[in-house]
Amino acid sequence: MTTEDRSIATSAISGTSVAHETVHDHGNPEFYSVSVPKLFVLSLCTLGLYELYIQYRNWALIKARDNSDIKPFWRAFFAIFFVYGLFSRVDQSARNHQLPGTAAGPLAAGWIITTLLWRLPDPYWLICYAAVFFLLPVQSAINRINSATCTNLDTNGRYNGWEVALVVVGGLFFVLAVIGTFLPE
Predict the structure, then answer these.
(1) Per residue in 46-69, pLDDT tens?
(2) Which residues of 149-179 are buried (b: 16+ CB within 10 A; e: fewer)?
(3) 8 Å CB contact between 7 and 24
(4) What angle do CA 163, 169, 175 make, to 5 degrees?
(5) Structural domain includes residue 17
(6) Range of 82's domain?
(7) Which residues contact 144 (CB under 8 A, 6 or more apart)?
(8) How far is CA 4 from CA 7, 27, 38, 94, 98, in A?
(9) What pLDDT is stored for residue 118 in this prediction?
(10) pTM to 2 decimals?
(11) Where are the alpha helices (DSSP H) in 33-131?
(12) Total domains present in the chain
């Protein structure tokens, strides 16, 4: 892997400062790119599961880039415990590249709180689908970082066959769930 630029990033983890080296290869994205509209649509149509997939893909890229022993699947599965770590890494990377950062703390807190609202009674549980709105600014920052650090970047805005199927089936299921919520018993 050829490196064209290196930067030292410092992140706070559990109150201790840990320095790690981030290597930027202008051919490989630093984080997982997906267009913001596609993230929104797939999040709604997969009932929020795409948000976990996005987090898994980002943790997998972080693991490979930093040569760490983290477990991306478990970090996505227990996202409410690790989402702040991911958001703060994105924020720090954006600042390292002199790009606008994100408010990692409030966005992570908002995502966690709205995600946990699925347990509310009808129809208030629908609020949990607003969790994607806290992920959109982070994905926007990721896309800016990748655009600044990668050549020939695929913005991942097109839908493949599986994603089209998810939108059709999941979208129908979502609409039926919303209608069912408001039907009289």
Answers:
(1) 989 999 999 999 999 999 999 999
(2) bbeebeebeeeeeebeebbeebeeebeeeee
(3) yes
(4) 120
(5) no
(6) 28-182
(7) 94, 99, 100
(8) 10, 10, 31, 17, 17
(9) 85
(10) 0.80
(11) 36-45, 49-66, 72-77, 79-96, 104-116
(12) 1
